[in-house]
Amino acid sequence: ETGLMGSNEALRANAAELWEAYVASKGLHFTALALLSLLSLAVLAVLGVFSWIGCLVFRDWWRERQRRKLKPRPARVSAEAVRQLLADTLLFRPLPEADREAIALAAQPEEYPAGATIIREGDSGNKMFVLFAGRVEVLRELVTGRQEPVATLAPGDVFGEIALLKNVPRTRSVCAREKSIVLSLSLEAFRTLV
User: pTM for the full model?
Assistant: First the structure.
């Protein structure tokens, strides 16, 4: 116990001496100010790094959330409406009714929200589409990276067939300008039917 008391008294004496030295120096020394500044900068740098990492994580989360919003969903369309659309579509009108019926059975209705990219220029083509409802825009990629509108499609218009017919990458991008329903025909179904 006496050893502990002696240690406490020595610490108090050291603290008192330090305080007296501080008061005698009339404030902080340049060295102490520099150390405090460096410590503050280090704390700010660490906070900045954590903030930057947090911003990157939030950005990636937000992009993924937006991407999920723009994904197609299965749409409900009556078989009769699909048959009627195919009978009115320029590409399928000349076909016999049995062939149009086979295409109607193979076509998958998909709903795209406004702003969704249905086809991206340069991608490989694995589907062709018939616009069932809504409005989509055909865009071409400029050298600058900007996209320029080329055409606006109406229900009954066919797009994406060039990549399937010629076995080339997508020649244009197609984006939904409002909520749109398309009938997609896979490459396998296209080859089987055509």
Answer: 0.64
